[in-house]
Amino acid sequence: MNDRRLLPFSNLEQRGAISVVIPENWFSAFGDFSTADSAVTDEFSAIDKTEMKASANDYLAKKENLSIIKLGLMEIPDKGAIAMEIIIRDRIYINGEWIPSAGTGTIDVINPATEEVMGRIPDGTAEDVDLAAKAAAAAFPGWSQTPLEERVEFIRKIAAGIQSRIQEIAALIAGEVGMPVKLAARVQAGLPFATFSSIPEVVKMVKWEEQIGTSLIVREAVGVVGCITPWNFPLHQIAAKVAPALTAGCTIVLKPTEIAPLNAYILAEIIHGAGLPAGVFNMVMGTGRVVGEAIASHPLVDMVSFTGSTRAGKRVSELAIPSVKRVSLELGGKSPNIILDDADLQKVVADGVGKCYLNSGQTCSALTRMLVPRSRLAEAEAIAAAAAARFTPGDPFDDNTRLGPLVSAAQRDRVRGYIRKGIEEGAKLVTGGPEPPDGLERGYFVRPTVFSEVRNDMTIAQEEIFGPVLAIIPYDDEDDAIRIANDTVYGLAAAVWSGDPERAKRVARLIRSGQVEINGGKFNSLAPFGGYKQSGHGREYGPFGIEEFLEVKALLM
After folding, report:
1. Is 364 one of the catalytic residues?
2. Is 425 annotated as catalytic?
């Protein structure tokens, strides 16, 4: 057998998980798994590698309370896409326990780089949601009255748990979503840790009580929160809801995405290990059509926090109406990147290509519409083409890869369809196209693509593509740029570049979006994130994220 190590999982008896092996060269990207328990690795330390498969299965067979666990050590090439046995997770987490789903169906998790099954989860039911909602409702009185300091201490423990498994999380999400593993370590694993670890400081920014005239205004937990999260930044989006909701004193029913769900089990294990009271956090796997809709319509759920497509967000709102739930929506975007005539074109066009292609373009706030002065269009095209050429598509675990696959065959086909539509409608194809990248016939890969001479009424300028497709739109003057930027049903994010910071700030104030990046302003995890128009309503992150889960009460003195 070639170079490989066992990926250790601590507390195996509690998990209902499969152990997997990973190539030795994975570790070079981000160090060793030194924090993981040695319960498995010690057991095999004296066993010859050729005997590991049988011995590992014998070891696991002796364990009690394991559900459908099997360890397969298989031939894995020193380089190339992931190859591993299926990670089977056959439990959901309700009322502090790992229990079977009421249903018998399962959902396969597909590795987008190999098109192979990498995991399997329960296909949950409305009955599962009902059980979870009842557990959350029963736990709410005690949790909401738990002193804030104690709730924050639980959050600290969860943050520490994420930090201890951050490398494992990065590798798992790189397999589920396809983001290059080095970037996944910083983004897909790093952001959830940052969210939880920021809470002890963020709570100091919230006005939990204030005196207004003769009245004391208090802020209290909204109740049971249904959290429905997407696949593009799966654990980050969970953290952005779960951390502030728990801090606010809410109890939770979580439905992670069924497309990239395996990472959510790690968080649930960490929460269980932190000793959170039973029923405070519950997790049900399944589809949006069944589990998501059951959460949004359940009478015991007081609020739904949803991140996903605008179409699905509208459906959540419809289902929430009969019980008049509070609904927070973070939806799609078609974000403009305005490059004013006094900006450094070489710098900002290359920067814009990178921000369009982040996570293979599967980012709701991606800057997908680049607005450039008409007189400098040819120059911008050349810079963008050169920048796009540096985004080498390939295996997420290859050090040379800068662009991973799209998450699914459906997403790949959808994006290629948009590229064809752009060509049909007369946009100029600068680079890329609908054909598979050279040498990548297997996997859900799309060529990094740049269009120019795009009119803002074209489909590729108006609809969210969610892939590595940049539309360069020429404008005539500043007013024209602002008009084009705002000519969209979305309003999630934007950017403005200018040699004059005050000019950039003035233009930014005129853009109808929840966030506007000025001259490359850095991401701020404490700043509010959310949209205008059909990009949703409500805000995440920082004190605004906690306040989203609070009700306001006036005590009249």
Report:
1. yes
2. no
